[in-house]
Amino acid sequence: xxxxxxxxxxxxxxxxxxxxxxxxxxxxxxxxxxxxxxxxxxxxxxxxxxxxxxxxxxxxxxxxxxxxxxxxxxxxxxxxxxxxxxxxxxxxxxxxxxxxxxxxxxxxxxxxxxxxxxxxxxxxxxxxxxxxxxxxxxxxxxxxxxxxxxxxxxxxxxxxxxxxxxxxxxxxxxxxxxxxxxxxxxxxxxxxxxxxxxxxxxxxxxxxxxxxxxxxxxxxxxxxxxxxxxxxxxxxxxxxxxxxxxxxxxxxxxxxxxxxxxxxxxxxxxxxxxxxxxxxxxxxxxxxxxxxxxxxxxxxxxxxxxxxx
Length: 309
What we know:
Layout (H helix, E strand, L loop, with lengths): L1 E5 L3 E8 L12 E7 L1 H12 L3 E8 L3 H10 L3 E7 L4 E8 L4 E5 L8 H14 L5 E5 L10 H11 L3 E5 L2 H9 L4 E2 L3 H5 L8 H13 L4 E5 L5 E4 L4 E4 L12 H14 L4 H16 L9 H8 L4 E3 L2
Helix pairs in contact: 1-8, 4-5, 8-9, 9-10
């Protein structure tokens, strides 16, 4: 079974307008409301690909009903810990004339030690050898930057496969616990490593992470493509030219495809093709809607994967 863990979920409101003019009244062309948070987005894409997952994590008690109703309507199983406060609403502003994307993310609710212990108890009860756990996203108030490290250590004792997608100190500390797979984007990687902009330097950082005990590293680079690095091979995926409607959720789609591919015992190259195609399919969707399997399959026919030196 695949489990996604979202510590800081959100309602994602995407607002479309021709141009954002600061200091003036702006009128939107349209708006879309989705449920999100990185792990929740991963569960949505897993479902779209034809897989199943259970969404774990926290949810604000004050507006939990609407959020859970959305999960249930999508057929996503969930067992969330209810915490005091309200689940945040993140604003995504899309300026259609200039293709400018602006995110305004709220901080969200605050977590108590008792809340965290309830979540840890759920993880211990669910985790079995070979289960896949996706740990991803920002941290709410009240949670220390070593939380992913602690979660990874607990899950490794159970024999689970762990995918980490985080940034900053949370990523740095999480890497110390040696998750099986990490998927930083180029900006997240630059927060904790120094390297040049050329591809060989980027690959060198990925190989360094492998030496530290991580089994697979996927580095997404936006319109420059992506790298998939394992112990003895490096694959590079060229970017595909598509009409970008929203950049939100592309990385989550990649993580979802990786977890889905592992659950189906796919080979590494095929997992990478699926991941890149899922990320590309995500950016041609509006808001944080999961990409359709039909679009993913069509893009898989076109994706170019090559072995790096």
